[in-house]
Structure to design on (610 residues):
């Protein structure tokens, strides 16, 4: 049964994990995402669906618990915020190497270091370019609303199992903490039967199942890398997701993701009220990046302003996609500061229109 | 008597357990890892739980343990086996789960995971191969390296004033409420191997009871890392390791 509720982003995401049929959550508290585990502990989903919830001794332990559960073919999820995600990176690399499906939520706060608990998008590089060691990719989903925080959990599990790959939900402190109306999807069943690659006990007459990311021979490791690369090309072909707003007649284009895209949309409306025809592209998948559509739009506009709550990270992917077809600028606030719509509009005028 | 008359089923006194694969062990000659594998595999066979057992291999010389144990296995990151095993056991509580780890893995980089898995009383078996050295990476000092013992990173012998003291992890976890059975064994003689096997069997049997973590340390040799022949290494182990790491049960379930 679908259900309408007013919910905080983090809590809605936690509820979505239960409803998506997750088998296990492992996490460690950190602001601004502790509501995820608090909600789960309160809700006690073991009584609702049998889902296990455990507060681990660290983010390192939590991600390795996810590895263990995922290796058994189960739907496992963890959440944290930036410093904790850094700690998880070794484990994430192992998950990618062993081709295990799982969902990792990063409710980003500003850094580097302990930084501040205020919202930020400064973990973009870490999420889409690796972060852990080795040549691997995460599928990265960027919700802009509490509704997407819910819907993307289910999508993330689907994609994780479709490609046997970890999926990251790159949220931020704004989306995690704000309350919005959400429509919750109905309860999905938990996984009934494990897939062949899962360690659930050796079947008579079959080879034992091994979950590993180790290859001692370079020839074998290269084969693994090639297989992973082929998978990533499939992901790039099939899973690009984005939204565009008022791009049809646009002379200028904003590109922004997550909560920042919502503020940028306001700036777009203000620009249009002033007679500046601006459109907005909002990537929902940061990897795979909507490069093709962006390249197409670039051919039609006089300039592109990337707006981010960081010092300029996604802008590099925008430049790669645009490939010189038009000018690309960046406007960012960071350290937990949130750009205002008129700051964004100002930046557009200054960088492209001459104000 | 001709060979063909001797090699027939009636004369069979010893057989390779079916829980070990036919792959050739990569361990150095005389290394305790192979014997420890064999005993654990034997126990899994005797308990009839091959299809219900999931093992976790460490990073260390036994990183390829999954080649040799013919059970479903996962390869964990260095030190994280207890967390991986926790993840497995929490979603498959009816299965038998074990970790197999060296001293660097279990008592240095993975100390937090070890202590917390034991403290939560995860219903798993942890097999701890203590050879007082980092075998795999070429003989560096381990948390369990004895005072004065030479290694490639303590070339003048472990100086406890600057390098710290050897860690008795097994005594430490025995203090925790979550552990149910904690014992220290060795596998360097037939008599010791038999005892170690009994300990491993008990530990797996206890797993059914859901009473907490079972922890079996095996004090073992590393002829290559210690730069000794296998025979010398076993003698050295008896003379130096056992006084510091005395064999026997440390925590047994109350009757
Ligand atoms: C994060 C990380 N750090 C370091 C290493 C290198 N490394 C591999 S095995 C090992 C030590 C293994 O020693 P031990 O656990 O005692 O096992 P043994 O080889 O003696 O059986 C080290 C330091 C690694 N693989 N991963
Ligand atoms: S290096 Fe040491 S622990 Fe490793 S296989 Fe050789 S003897 Fe055994
Ligand atoms: Mg060792």
């Amino acid at each position: 049964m679908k259900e309408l509720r007013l919910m905080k982003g983090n809590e809605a995401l936690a509820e979505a994990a239960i409803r998506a049929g997750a088998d296990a959550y492992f996490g460690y508290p950190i602001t601004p995402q502790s509501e995820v585990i608090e909600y789960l502990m309160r809700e006690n989903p073991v009584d609702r669906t049998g889902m296990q919830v455990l507060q681990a001794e660290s983010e390192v332990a939590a991600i390795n618990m996810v590895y263990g559960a995922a290796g058994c073919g189960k739907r496992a999820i963890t959440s944290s915020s930036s410093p904790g995600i850094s700690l998880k990176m070794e484990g994430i690399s192992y998950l990618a190497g062993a081709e295990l499906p799982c969902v990792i939520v990063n409710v980003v706060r500003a850094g580097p270091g302990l930084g501040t608990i205020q919202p930020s998008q400064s973990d973009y590089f870490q999420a889409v370019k690796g972060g852990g060691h080795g040549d691997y990719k995460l599928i990265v989903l960027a919700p802009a609303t509490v509704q997407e925080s819910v819907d993307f959990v289910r999508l993330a599990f689907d994609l994780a199992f479709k490609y046997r790959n970890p999926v990251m939900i790159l949220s931020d402190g704004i989306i995690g903490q704000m309350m919005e109306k959400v429509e919750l999807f109905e309860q999905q069943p938990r996984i009934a039967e494990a897939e062949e690659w899962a360690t659930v006990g050796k079947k008579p007459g079959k080879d034992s199942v091994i979950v590993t990311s180790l290859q001692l021979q370079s020839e074998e490791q290269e084969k693994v890398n090639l297989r992973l690369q082929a998978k990533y090309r499939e992901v790039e072909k099939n899973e690009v997701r984005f939204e565009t707003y008022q791009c049809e007649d646009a002379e200028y284009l904003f590109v922004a993701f997550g909560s920042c895209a919502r503020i940028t949309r306001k700036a777009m409306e203000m620009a249009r009220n002033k007679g500046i025809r601006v459109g907005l592209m909002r990537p929902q998948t940061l990897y795979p990046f909507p490069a093709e559509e962006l390249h197409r739009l670039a051919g039609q506009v006089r300039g592109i302003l990337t707006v981010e709550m960081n010092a300029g990270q996604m802008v590099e992917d925008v430049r790669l996609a645009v490939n010189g077809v038009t000018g690309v600028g960046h406007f960012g606030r960071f350290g937990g500061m949130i750009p205002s719509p008129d700051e964004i509009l100002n930046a557009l005028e200054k960088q492209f229109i001459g104000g | 008597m001709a060979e063909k008359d001797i090699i027939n089923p009636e004369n069979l006194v010893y057989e390779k357990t079916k829980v070990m694969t036919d792959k050739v062990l990569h361990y150095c000659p005389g290394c305790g890892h192979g014997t420890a594998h064999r005993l654990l595999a034997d126990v899994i066979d005797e308990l009839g739980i091959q299809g219900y057992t999931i093992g976790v291999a460490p990073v260390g010389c036994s990183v390829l343990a999954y080649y040799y144990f013919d059970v479903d296995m996962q390869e964990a990151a260095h030190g994280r086996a207890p967390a991986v095993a926790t993840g497995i056991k929490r979603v498959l509580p009816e299965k038998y789960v074990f970790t197999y780890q060296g001293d660097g893995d279990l008592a240095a980089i993975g100390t937090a995971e070890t202590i917390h898995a034991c403290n939560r009383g995860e219903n798993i078996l942890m097999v701890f191969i203590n050879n007082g050295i980092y075998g795999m990476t070429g003989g560096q000092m381990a948390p369990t390296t004895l005072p004065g013992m030479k290694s490639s990173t303590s070339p003048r012998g472990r100086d406890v004033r600057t390098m710290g003291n050897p860690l008795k992890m097994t005594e430490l976890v025995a203090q925790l409420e979550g552990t149910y059975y904690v014992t220290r064994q060795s596998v360097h003689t037939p008599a010791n191997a038999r005892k170690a096997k009994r300990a491993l069997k008990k530990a797996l049997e206890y797993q059914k009871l859901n009473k907490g973590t079972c922890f079996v340390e095996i004090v073992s040799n590393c002829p290559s890392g210690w730069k000794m022949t296998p025979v010398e290494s076993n003698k050295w182990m008896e003379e130096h390791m056992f006084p510091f790491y005395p064999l026997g049960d440390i925590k047994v379930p109350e009757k």
